[in-house]
Fold this protein.
Amino acid sequence: MLLCRKLTAFRAFFLPVVMLFASGGCTAFLEPREPYPINPPEPSPHSPVPRELDMVSLPSYTIEPPDILFIQAVKIVPKAPHKLEPFDALLIRVANAFADQPLQDAFFIDPEGTVDLGPGYGRVKVVGLTTDEARAEIIKHLAQLIEDPQVSVSLAASSGAQQISGEHLVGPDGRINLATYGQVYVAGLTLDQARVAIEKHLSNYLEAPQIAVDVFAYNSKYYYVITQGGGQGDDVQKFPITGNETVLDAIGNLGGLSQLSSTRIFIARPAPNGVGCEQILPVNWDEISRGASTATNYQLMPRDRLYIAEDPYVKFGALVFKYTQPFERMFGFVSLGTGMANQIRRFGLGSL
């Protein structure tokens, strides 16, 4: 009688608490997990959710760490007056050079700051000079070999292009490093927006710069496959998204369903904070695999969680083993100790 009264009081207290939690906020994310949908509802033909035969293109790619961008310098012209630096290229033309050793080519400034005009003309130090000052130095040098040398000098290529062109990692702070030109924040931008931001930053150092930006490595967009482990913990695997994966592709990347898994599968698609409920998409694996149905073979989106539930019988067996194993060990020790004691009592210590 006393036990019945306690149970009645417990129900009277517990039931309002459950109703309070159930009535507050968005609870759709709990629905397919307990109980799992044994027969997932057939999706509406008017459902906008993309699937195998009705895929959509993903929105414009937004850059995030740790993506790697490839930047190509299209137009890099230093602002005047430009001081020549190592690895700049000068276009040098000498109208009255030796006939067998013409001077009409591009010459790179070496790390020592000189240009090598060839074995018949020697080297001229030009680093730190403007192109006009470099022309005067070259005329002064060639005047020792050629009477009244006619020289023209222009900048063919700037070493600044080498600092810009190539692969650039988006760091944890969302910035890329452009060497002596500093850093530019590109996280959350599309490729076009990043190009504009980089060109705007470079305009502080260069004259009307033009660059091309592309993604060299897509490292920031993933989907997750969460597999229950039959009472032994969950397994989480992360796969890069390319914009063309479906549920069947994701399970194929796993090598199929394991012996611990059931065919109870769904996609949990997160929504932005404060914007509606998380979207739950039940998957009918039997229809996808055996019936070639595309109704629930959904297209995966970045940050989707594909959840594969465990086989309840495997979990039950694991739980039974988990809770009976300590008793089995204890009984094993007791049995071993009893056997040894009986042997000592019967045959003495000399038999051990």
